[in-house]
Amino acid sequence: MPTLRTLLESLTSRTSDVNDLNELQVRVKEKLSKNRFLIVLDDVWNENYNHCMTLLSPFEVGSVESKIIVTTSNQRIALMSWVTNDSNSSLW
User: Fold this and answer.
1) In whole angstroms, what is the distance from residue 75 CA to residue 23 CA?
2) Across the chain, what does the average pLDDT equal?
3) Per the domain annotation, does 29 fall within a domain?
4) 22 occurs within a structural domain
5) Number of structural domains in the chain
6) Is 92 domain-assigned?
7) If DSSP codes are grouped into helix, strand and coil, which group holds residue 88?
8) What's this model's pTM, rounded to 2 decimal places?
9) End-to-end CA gap in the chain
10) Three-state helix/strand/coil letters over 27-53
11) Which residue has the higher pLDDT, 15 or 78?
12) Mean pLDDT, to the nearest integer, of 73-87?
């Protein structure tokens, strides 16, 4: 939740006092809707699939040119099903 709050604050240039995860997701989706964006999630370490999907769900609303880059030193995370087939496993 802190990651989404930080993102919302960056998108709005205002401090957010939203504490509800669903509300944070809705507000981030509203700001990103139909826009092109590049999101970099650096050094992801949480192997919990549900946590990862919760974090990524607001980014489903962007234009087709939008991209999400995830970096991690944990190969199990890199092999999770939410990583698309165009990921290059030779980077390991």
Assistant:
1) 32
2) 83
3) yes
4) yes
5) 1
6) no
7) coil
8) 0.70
9) 29
10) HHHHHHCCCCCEEEECCCCCCCHHHHH
11) 15
12) 70
